[in-house]
Every structure is written in C-alpha cells, then in structure tokens.
Structure prediction request, 233 residues.
Amino acid sequence: AQKITQTQPGMFVQEKEAVTLDCTYDTSDQSYGLFWYKQPSSGEMIFLIYQGSYDEQNATEGRYSLNFQKARKSANLVISASQLGDSAMYFCAMREDGSNYKLTFGKGTLLTVNP
Amino acid sequence: DTGVSQDPRHKITKRGQNVTFRCDPISEHNRLYWYRQTLGQGPEFLTYFQNEAQLEKSRLLSDRFSAERPKGSFSTLEIQRTEQGDSAMYLCASSLRYGQGVTKNIQYFGAGTRLSVL
Prediction:
C-alpha cells in the first residue's frame, strides 16, 4: 500500500493566488514527521516545511503552511500569494520514527503558476 | 555554511562500466542518506549512514551497488557493471542525529547526480 499519496499530478494557479496541494499518508507509528519539498527543474530537493505528529499547531514558514488533519491522515501544503518562481514539482514525505528516519516520498505534484 | 554537494552533476556511461558518485554532507551532520529518483517518481531510499557506519540498506540496493562513508565525512556510491535500468537521479541528503535537542531531523538534499546508461 502507498504510504504517501499525492492525488494531483498537476495543478495550475494564477500568480498572487493561493493554492493547496494534497497529501495523505498511512502509518501505524504514533511518532512520525511530515515534510514538503520543492524540486525545480534543476533537480535539487529544497526543504519547505515540517510537521511533527505531536505538534498541535499547524506549521507555517513564510508563505507556506501545512494543514495537518491527524484523524484524516492528511498534510496538505498551502502556498499563499503564488509567485512565478513557485512553479516546480512538490513532494510530500513522511519519516516514521521506527524506520531509521528515512523518508518515504509521494509521486509529487507539478505546480504551474500562470502570470 | 555550505549545503550538501554532489559530484558529478551528470554522468553518461556505457552499459557494463563502473561509476562512482561522491557526496559531501553539511559539515556538522552525522547522518547521510542516499536516494534514487526515476522519471516521474518521488525519491526512493537506498541506504543510510550514521557517522561511518552503514546502518540500513534497501532491497533496491543490489549487489552491484556499494556505498561507503570513510571517517564519517564524505560518502561514495559505486555502481558496478551498470545496466540501463540504473539510469536515474541519485540524491544524497544529510541531517543531524534526532534527539539531544534536535527534534526535527530535517534532511537537506544535494542537487543530485543524473546518471544515463547507454
């Protein structure tokens, strides 16, 4: 079974608008972490935001926020005020704390920001 | 503070040749990970080091693959007798050890080595 599911292969958004990228996860661990990374066409994976399973508040980092719904096992990324430079692949990943801290990634969502 | 660096960025080789990639982690990071990413997929875990000890290897890592991290600093990933199915992006990441005041264990990635096997 997929541990990380990203159901949107591609998303389009107008510049300056907000966009939500979906991520659902599957784990039986009580302690885990959820991450979002951005991968531009250059290939580097850029860390955006982290949410721990015990964190009560949703994580925020500048224009990025993570909508964490633990009971639904979802960890959606919200990008506010989209910019042209946000066009990239976005990956959701999970670290299960019984797993040597390796990351399991989803298949990604290609975000295109239109001017 | 420099990030994770990988060398080379691109490698083209013929089937059957051996290739070696290098990863230099962020200097104070004691954990190092290798991942492989094929077209249209997310990265998949290959192996993990804590300092110089290789603590886990994925079943994806066949006998033709070997990784080392001598002295707990840089790491190398070698693929022997390359096959066309080895064509992929090989990504290296590093992090601090979880615990001892480190609560997030964020992995920082290099730009990757793109391997093409002809």
User: Anything to note?
Assistant: The two ends of chain B are 37 Å apart (CA to CA). Residues 64 and 102 of chain B are 35 Å apart (CA to CA).
